[in-house]
Write a structure and sequence with these properties.
The chain is of the alpha/beta class. It is built from twelve helices and twelve strands. The strands form two sheets. A six-stranded parallel beta sheet has the order 3-2-1-4-5-6. Strands 7-8-9-10-12-11 form a six-stranded mixed beta sheet. Helix 3 links the parallel strand 4 and strand 5. The relative contact order is 0.11. The chain binds manganese (II) ion.
């Protein structure tokens, strides 16, 4: 089945001489893997494509190929800019100008809460990862060969967003694509080890702090945990070191919703929400100015931790009892 928007995106990319690829702030494996796969494919043809990010590449993703195509600042003006795995213009950070100054603005994403403005915006909420959409774009619409390097990037994108093919967003199509990628001979065990298993010393410390802070509310249906600024700064922890800590609460028996708050700067919190079976956490995150997926979402909040937890808990209580 052909999609007109993907066709238009493929056409614009095929004609472009320079492309800025813009994943969301604090890149994860899907955002960076999908971006690098596209960059590798475009650079192997006619075009100069850069992946622009503002932070360091997380150590968990340092094995991804194509990192010479990552730039910290734009090199001139780009003809085409493409937003990747991001539904919120604020998550372009300082790269917003690059996006707005491009002649053509494209967007490819899978977040249900996507609000990006673009000349062509393609959102497929049924795709487990943006990497799946990029795979479809490259193979079905651009006729680009999936090299081993591109395959490793896309495989990493998919395992990141499906938790290693375990989350409910995993589809038969996800497995078919992953199978195709494996056929190229990628070292998938290493990718899984780097993304899921290896932990830094800082992360071990943060895991302990998270467990110490964990509280249960509403008959154990809501787990709340937080990391304070002092915890994060005392161990020189990077943002990636707190990735996945929301799952400590989510995985506890009886828990439906896990709320994890990380104090990024004094008084400024980044919130993560996960649910197990029935609560739509994207709706809750949206009430607090964030967004995401039904079972995984995020938001930012400023102020006193107790107040923030209280207002979140009230909103979550309503959806736990069905009074939302
Ligand atoms: Mn994603």
């Amino acid at each position: 089945m052909s999609d007109q928007k993907l066709e238009a995106i493929a056409k614009a990319l095929s004609k472009a001489r320079s492309v800025a690829i813009l994943p969301h702030l604090n890149v994860d494996g899907d955002a960076l893997g999908a971006s690098l796969a596209l960059a590798l494919a475009l650079n192997s043809s006619h075009c100069q494509a850069h992946v622009l990010i503002e932070e360091d590449v997380p150590a968990t993703l340092d094995f991804l190929p194509g990192q010479d195509l990552i730039k910290r600042s734009p090199e001139g003006r780009y003809q085409v800019a493409i937003n990747i795995d991001n539904g919120d213009i604020n998550r372009l950070g300082e790269r917003l100008a690059v996006y707005q100054n491009a002649e053509i603005r494209l967007s490819v994403d899978h977040h249900a809460t996507n609000k990006m403005e673009a000349d062509v915006s393609y959102v497929d909420t049924g795709a487990a990862a943006t990497g799946e959409i990029i795979h479809r774009l490259l193979t079905d619409y651009m006729g680009a060969p999936i090299t081993k390097d591109i395959a490793l990037c896309l495989y990493t994108a998919i395992i990141t967003d499906t938790g290693g093919f375990r989350f409910s967003n995993t589809t038969p199509e996800t497995m078919v694509i992953a199978g195709e990628l494996m056929k190229t001979g990628i070292d998938f065990t290493n990718a899984n080890k780097k993304v899921f298993d290896r932990i830094s010393h800082a992360k071990l410390f943060l895991m302990k702090q998270t467990m110490n802070s964990l509280k249960l509310l509403f008959d154990g249906k809501l787990a709340v945990a937080c990391l304070r600024w002092d915890d994060l700064s005392s161990f020189n922890a990077k943002i990636e070191d707190s990735e996945g800590l929301v799952n400590i609460g989510r995985n506890l028996e009886g828990v439906e919703v896990s709320l994890f708050l990380r104090e990024e700067k004094p008084g400024l919190f980044k919130g993560s929400l996960r649910s197990n079976e029935y609560v739509d956490v994207a709706q809750i995150a949206e009430k607090f100015g964030g967004g995401g997926h039904k079972r995984a979402a995020g938001f930012s909040a400023e102020g006193d931790l107790d107040d923030i937890v209280k207002s979140l808990a009230d909103a979550i209580k309503a959806s736990l009892t069905g009074d939302a």
